[in-house]
Specification:
Layout (H helix, E strand, L loop, with lengths): L5 H11 L5 H17 L13 H16 L3 H7 L5 H13 L20 H5 L6 H15 L1
C-alpha cells in the first residue's frame, strides 16, 4: 500500500467529513507545532507526546496570537465551534496517519475543554464594558 501525501490525505478528510474547512486542519497542524515548541523537550530520544489538554491550550494561545479579536470568528467560519470539534479534527488526522496517538488518547480528552466564547472573546472585552455590566447586574438584583 502506497502512502498518500499530506495534501491528498487532507482532501480525503474534507471530502469524508465536510464539517470543517481545510484551513482549520492546516491551522491545527500549525498549532500542534506551536504547542510542541512551548513544551519541555526530553534530553534524549523522540519528542514527547502532546496530550489533548496540552493541545487545546496550545490551540487557544496560538489562535489568540494569530487572529487576536477575530479568533472566534475565524474558527467559527471554519466550522470549529467547540473543543469537541477540535477532537474530531485531531482524530480525523489520526485516522489518515497524519498524526499519531497512544492507546490512552481518545476523543473524550477534548470534551468540555473550554467554552469558545470565554476562550476567544473574553480576553478582548473592554474592562469598561465589564464594569458597566456589573452595574447593570447590581441594579437588577436590588
Amino acid at each position: 500500500m502506497q502512502k498518500i501525501s499530506y495534501s491528498e490525505a487532507l482532501a480525503q478528510i474534507v471530502h469524508e467529513d465536510p464539517r470543517y474547512d481545510e484551513q482549520a486542519y492546516l491551522f491545527i497542524r500549525e498549532a500542534l507545532d506551536y504547542t510542541i515548541g512551548r513544551l519541555e523537550k526530553p534530553s534524549e530520544g523522540p519528542g514527547r507526546h502532546v496530550s489533548g489538554v496540552e493541545l487545546l491550550e496550545g490551540i487557544r494561545d496560538f489562535a489568540l496570537e494569530q487572529f487576536g479579536p477575530m479568533a472566534f470568528r475565524v474558527l467559527s467560519h471554519w466550522g470549529v465551534l467547540s473543543s469537541e470539534d477540535i477532537g474530531e479534527m485531531v482524530f480525523n488526522l489520526v485516522g489518515k496517519g497524519i498524526l499519531g496517538k497512544t492507546e490512552r488518547d481518545s476523543r473524550d480528552d477534548f470534551a468540555g475543554g473550554y467554552d469558545f466564547t470565554e476562550a476567544f472573546c473574553d480576553p478582548f472585552r473592554s474592562k469598561r464594558l465589564s464594569k458597566k455590566q456589573a452595574t447593570i447586574d447590581s441594579s437588577r438584583s436590588s
